Amino acid sequence: MLKIVLVSILFLFINAQEGELNFGVTSVALKQDAKNIFDLTTFLSKETGVKITPKFAKSYDEIKQMLEKREVDFAYVCGATYIEAKHSASLEILALPYFDNKPFYKSLVIARDEDEANSLLSFENRIFAFSDPKSNSGSIVPKYELKMRGIDYRYFFSEFIHTYDHSDSIEAVIDGYVDGASVDSLVFESYKLLKPERAKKVKVVQSFGEYQSTPIVVRKSVDIDIKLALLDALRKLSHEDDGVNILDGFGVCRFDLPEKIDFSRIEMMMKALDRIDD
Amino acid sequence: MIKRLYSFPISTKLAVSFLVVILVFAIIGAYISAKFTSENINEATDRFVEITVKNSEEFISRRLLEDDKWAVYKFIKSISENEFIKDGVVHNYQKVIAHSNPKEFPIGKYLEDEYIKNGVSFDMYMGDKKLGVVTVFKNSTTINDKVLQSIKRVLAVFILVASGSWLFAIFISKRILKRLTLATKNAELIAKNQWQSLEFKKHHEIDEITILLDSMESMSRDVKAHIDKIENLRNFYHNILSKMDLLILIMDEEHSISYQNGHPLIDEFDIEYLKETIVATRGYDGTSTVIEIKKGNMFFIISSVFIDNAYLISISDITVLKELEKKYSTSKSLALLGEMSSFLSHELKNLLVPLKLLVDAKNLNERDISVMKNAIKNMDIFVGNFLNFAKPPNSEEYDNIELSVLIDEVLFLLSSKLEKKRINLHKELVDMKISIHPKAFEIVALNLLLNSIDACEIEGNIWIRSYREGDFAYFEIEDDGCGIPPEIIDKIFDPFFTTKNSGTGLGLSLVFRIIDDIGAEIDMNSQSGSTRFIVRFVVKNEEKEG
């Protein structure tokens, strides 16, 4: 344990010395717009004076591992991932995205526009897409909602898949590869802005939540000045023209650190499902 | 169709030719292009599918192993986005894992064998374990569309090129036609003899047509100059001929009148009559003739010569001449009668002088009687000669008379005169017979030989010749005497013309009359030291055989 602490201190020292940070990104952010991620890291680098490099992970499990292995210093993750890794990776919340001036989002069940489905339960014996298995909105919420109705999702659908990406889930519905999907409301809104014509081909059949929005987390070991500089830079996004463009790309109006943050509902759902998985 | 094309203008012919050539090439090009495109697309699609699937085998197998259907779907969808691939499917024992057309082939649907056979399948392995099959279906519709598109492109190029060629053909043909039209127009003007309307221009093109036009211009000018020259000559000669007091006609072999000099005599003759007359009276060699005809009270001489396949005919009105000739003949006869009367009375008076002197004498001696006898004898000879001249012996009843015999008889009569002047006589005679009264021949030969003897000096030479040439018998007498002075040559055959003191002047005129009466001819050559008379007799068939 002492070794780990020493190595961590040394790693922090080296990073601080070199003034470099790695920023982890998952499917919570739109992969289709990787440029937006680069623009964000460039903006943050400029504002903080610290070189920030983006690191992309396929799944929340992967980003969780990267945080635990300290391969990334701060990351844009799902609330569920934060809950899972906050102790193992020693994380704290740096900022939350605001949508409609609220740090909350929803889980949306979508289907093709012409589909007659009107709720999650309409997809019985049909094909359904989850995003990441550890995604709150894309996986945990629908599974939890079915479970609350005494339904085991593994047998409810004729087939189900994981796309590991909210946008891919939307595409899967539009293509007809799946009949329905559960996606993050933030991603869905971004998708509508990014691809309005294709977005018209899907409709929201059911909405769950509100849930605390997906946080930008930072390892506690990162220098407090850098953390504060990062937070200031994130807040500054909504005040700068370049920053507003970046925020539009994420589908949020700003980043901030609210006084009250509550991930207990998500945690409760995770625990409920853990029992199922067990 | 081809024959109809012959009658079209050059522009149409050129344009159609261009179109046909381009169409043929376009069809061949379209066929090759379509075949090439089809083969290439099929081959490229096969290669694309094979390479893509083989290269992605590990990725697909791993995704199948992880049951990451979405990743498998994205792979098969990406392949199917190729326009030459219709669909792709990943299946496991024909159960769909991911199909590029998920609405029709959702996850879990079973595929039929016949359906899978239409595609190209690749088995996906992870080690020895078969995890699934990737089947790809080519989009034959798109390939056909591409081939069709290729054909359309070739046809579009064809239409473009054809349109351009059409315009080009029209442009070229118009340039050519403009010059050809000018050439045709000029040719028509030349044919119509409208030389003043000919039009010649300078052309930018230097090709066969321009060379033709330039040559035509040069030829036209030369021909025009020649025609002008010929026209001037024609006018010149026509003016001359039209001023002549005779009708001149040129008649071709078909007996059509091609020229006449405009003499009023043309109205006097029926053309058909003229033709018949000319043809019927051709000369013995068939080329020329001169005939005298009488029409009513008028006399004409028609002369015809056949030259260069045409008859040159001249017709003269000799009515006036005939009247003058008649008058002249009458006055000449009266003059001759007067001359003869004077001569006869004068000669008789001279011959009567000795008789008048002796007729009153009382005693006539022998000498006087001898003188009187001589006077009477001379009068008898004189009167005999005169009678011979007035009525020569008729030779009609005498045929086949041996010439040499007649000559010998004459020479016998003249032998004393010949011997007296010691004349050397050279006889070069052949056996031949002629038709003449012996007395007539005697008069002819005697007069000619007497003239020769008189002309010869002492010991002079006289040649007597006879020979035959063709249908004629010739009798010649030649001497080496003094010859006949040129100034009197034209008069020697006139009656009463003599250069001798004792001559009557009837000898040679009597010879001429006898020769003319029997249809023979006499000719004479004389110069100093030589005089030769040539008599030509026509030989009859019996004489030829004799």
How would you sum up this structure, described in words?
The complex is a heterodimer of chains A (278) and B (546). Chain A contains twelve helices and eleven strands. By secondary structure, chain A is an alpha/beta fold. Chain A folds into two domains: 152 residues, Periplasmic binding protein-like II (D-Maltodextrin-Binding Protein, domain 2), CATH 3.40.190.10; 108 residues, D-Maltodextrin-Binding Protein, domain 2, CATH 3.40.190. In chain A, helix 2 links the parallel strand 1 and strand 2. Chain A is globular, with a radius of gyration of 19 Å. Chain B has 546 residues and is α+β, with helices and mostly antiparallel strands. Among the domains of chain B are: 40 residues; 71 residues, 3-Layer(aba) Sandwich (Profilin-like); 67 residues; 151 residues, 2-Layer Sandwich (Heat Shock Protein 90), CATH 3.30.565.10. Chain B contains 14 helices and 16 strands. In chain B, strands 6-5-9-8-7 form a five-stranded antiparallel sheet, covered by helices on one side. Chain B has a five-stranded mixed sheet with strand order 11-13-14-16-15, covered by helices on one side. In chain B, strands 2-1-4-3 form a four-stranded antiparallel sheet. Chain B is rod-shaped, with a radius of gyration of 62 Å. At the A-B interface, strand 7 and helix 7 of A face helix 4 of B.
